[in-house]
Description:
Blueprint: E1 2-16, E2 21-29, E3 33-37, H1 43-50, E4 56-59, E5 62-64, E6 79-91
Parallel strand pairs: 1-6
Antiparallel strand pairs: 1-2, 1-3, 4-5, 4-6
Amino acid sequence: MVKVRVHPRIEVTKWSLYHNSSLSTKTLILDDVELNFPKQATVHEISQSSWQYIQKCETTCLHLMADKNLVDYGIQKDVNLVTIRRLFVVEGELH
């Protein structure tokens, strides 16, 4: 078993339809969650346990792919993961 400490984040991006660009981005830091998983657990299984849907999962600045398991990345012991859920808020009218 591997103890995984998940540091969840929500990244909110406001998008302008008029300018067709990002107006602002802010990141909300949520409370950490500690979970135990077998070493063969996939990144998808870990992210599903901490969110309904995860866009990105990182450890030590490494982007983890959802279909890989912890052993594929050489993670054999306790690990800290940052999970980021991206939300886009659309503003304005399309001209």
